[in-house]
Each structure stands twice: as structure tokens, then as C-alpha cells.
Amino acid sequence: MIIAIAAIGMNNELGKDNQLIWHLPNDFKRFKTLTTGHYIIMGRKTFESFPKPLPNRTHVIITRQKNYTAENCIVVDSLKKAIAVCPKDEDVYVIGGGEIYNQSIDFADKLEITKVFHSFEADTFFPEIDITKWKLVSEEFHAKDEKHAYDFCFQTYVSKQ
């Protein structure tokens, strides 16, 4: 199953200057829980935004740079090739950035979204979730607290196709 996982603001904001624009520890925990042990597909800029590769995950990096290499990672030049190198019988997570989400939304079987209830200045956005193609199957609200500056909720969508 191909699963796109993202945290997005009220206007589908993902980030600015190749960085997240909020800090939500419970979102990080959920991301880690869901993606650990799986293949994760990302664009080069998303990969380079990490201080180091994420532990216990197989990184598949999409880039148009011809001789790009990253230690212990799989590097390909298209989403189609990224999907092809992943196991067919396992969950595979698409983790960004904006262009990779745009390319993958039509391939995805499921969306794991953290909706942040605030608007942010951003330069990267998640594609619009078309409710004629996606069904919301679970939603879990979290109020802001001392560790979370914003209200947010975890949402799971499945493809209607």
C-alpha cells in the first residue's frame, strides 16, 4: 500500500525554506511509529533537510541530479522508479516534499494527515484533498498544550477508487 504522510496547515501548508513551520512532538511520534521499518520515498530536498537519515527506515530519494549519492539510500530519478524499488507487499510511505506529494496523490492508497489548525506563511503546499476521491475514515483531535502551540488532529483517508 502506498501511503502519503504529511502535516499540513489550514491552507495545506507544508513548510518554508525547506523546513517545517511548527513543532508538534506528538506528530513526530506518530510519524516515527507509522514509518519505522518501512520504505520512505522523498525528494532530494526533503532528504537534505534531515540532520541525518531517519533510523530503521529504507530511504528512497528522487532527484534529477545525475550523479547524486547518499550512503545507505536508494537514489532514483522518478516516482515510478521509486515505487518500483519498494516491496510490493508492504506499506510504503511518501514523506514529501510538495512536488513528490503532487506526483504521488493519484497513486496513493491512503493519506495519513496531521491537520494543524492554524494558517502559516509557506512556500510548499500539499495538494488539495479531493473528497470525491478520498474518504475520511478516522480523526483524532488534540488540543494545544504546553508542548504543542496549535490545535491539531490526526486524519486517515482511504482512496475511494
From TrEMBL:
InterPro entries: DHFR, DHFR-like_dom_sf, DHFR_dom. Keywords: NADP, One-carbon metabolism, Oxidoreductase. CDD domains: DHFR. The keyword Oxidoreductase applies. Residues 1-159 form the DHFR domain. It catalyses: (6S)-5,6,7,8-tetrahydrofolate + NADP(+) = 7,8-dihydrofolate + NADPH + H(+). It holds the Pfam family DHFR_1. Pathway: Cofactor biosynthesis; tetrahydrofolate biosynthesis; 5,6,7,8-tetrahydrofolate from 7,8-dihydrofolate: step 1/1. Its EC number is 1.5.1.3. Belongs to the dihydrofolate reductase family. Key enzyme in folate metabolism. Catalyzes an essential reaction for de novo glycine and purine synthesis, and for DNA precursor synthesis. This is Dihydrofolate reductase. It comes from Flavobacterium solisilvae. The lineage of its organism: Bacteria, Pseudomonadati, Bacteroidota, Flavobacteriia, Flavobacteriales.
